[in-house]
Amino acid sequence: MGKKILFLPILIGLLVGCAGSKKSAQVPVSPEWVQARPTSHIYYVGIGSARKTADPNGYMQAAKQSALADLASDISINISSNSVLSAFETQQRFFEDYSSTIKADAQKELEGYEIVETWEDLTNYWVYYRLSKDLYKKQVDEKKQKATAKSLDFYDKALKSIEQGDVRVGLVLLVKALEPIKPFFAETIMANYNGSDIFLGNEIIQLISSTLNSLSITGSSYTNVKLGQPLTQKDLQFLVNYKANKLQKGIPLKANYSEKPIAQNRAVTDINGAAGFSIDAVRSSKPSEKFSVSMDFDVILSEATTDFAIRKILSRFNVPYTELIINISKPSFHIASIEKNIGVVLTQNIISEAIKRKLAEAAMPIVLSSNEADFVINIDASTVQVSETGGYKQAALSTIISVTSSNGVEVYRKSLDRILGSHFDIEMAGKNAFVEASRKVENSVMREIIEVVVKGKSSY
Description:
Elements: H1 2-25, H2 32-35, E1 43-51, H3 56-73, H4 92-109, E2 114-120, E3 124-132, H5 133-163, H6 167-178, E4 190-193, E5 196-199, H7 200-214, E6 215-219, E7 222-226, E8 231-242, E9 246-247, E10 252-257, E11 266-268, E12 274-279, E13 288-295, H8 297-304, H9 308-314, E14 321-329, E15 333-341, E16 344-345, H10 350-361, E17 375-389, E18 392-405, E19 410-423, H11 426-455
Parallel strand pairs: 7-14, 15-17
Antiparallel strand pairs: 1-3, 2-3, 4-5, 6-8, 8-9, 8-12, 10-11, 10-13, 13-14, 15-16, 17-18, 18-19
Helix pairs in contact: 3-4, 5-6, 6-7, 6-8, 10-11
């Protein structure tokens, strides 16, 4: 009986111990490649993970993408001294942008990688990829060879187009020549062209630069215009030459006017290498403004490639540029006035003098001859007696003011009807009406006239 009682606690202890051992064996132990990233001389490595969700396919795919991205990042980018990027090495921010772009592209094109192992715990799923460095180099060399051949074909066609005088087509082809070799911008790209070995990427970049530097934009250095008048395409015409003697068609230009943006600020040279711009009316209060024109290289880049990295590199090049000074003078006025008070012509024209004061305030020149004037202000004003009450007389003034340009076009007309003046003397009543009219002319009519002249109209 005593032996049986002693055996029972021992049996219970053994059972509890076994249960504890079984429970601890169920806790998963992560493999070494999860705990520490492996390194290899013969493989590129990619480790990725994703948090588990209710969708196993979703988190497994996410882990694989993470591993591929990591694999791509393990492939380092070193800039060769004879590479396309060598000239831009000092621009760290650009190189960082380029590196991320290349890695993203490389991830899409990775081939020959293999899955080494997967592992999961209660919350995460892990994937381990690897890619043979020798296999990757062989793949890259094959792709580089094909890309070089394609790029060299564009380069050859570009050179021939430029030699034949079609610079626009040549530039488009040169930009296209960069697209196939973009994945290798950080590397030396050797090619044999007409029996000579060249660094192809560098040659393309240098040819784009030298071609742009050989283009010039020429035009007048200055032009004169009156305030409010337009500048036509004849006034703002520019020529594009290659090496100073070959006029270029199809070259996109963009203009900048210092006073304000213009509606049509882009143009393309015609078969004679010419392109023109226009300004509807010069309204600046300054004595001069600048009109600059440069080659719109972005148009050519957009035509040649949609690749952001290539466009970002090439947008750094200087493009041909020229500048024209617009000298602005104020228009001159002649005043032709007939002012009658109760049938008698005034010896001192009241409305005319008000107009002269406002023109002087605006620094608008007044000339004695209508033939010398840019605008003629015509005044036709007369008073008549309209009533009399107890000896108190009232006169009414009717006035027409018009403005005519030097080519005979009427640009402004205003009628001031029945402006009244009162006095015991009818002549003084008429003069009071003239004085009242002169106030209206100074306060509103002249502002309208100057505004019309300054704003300008295409008809005159």
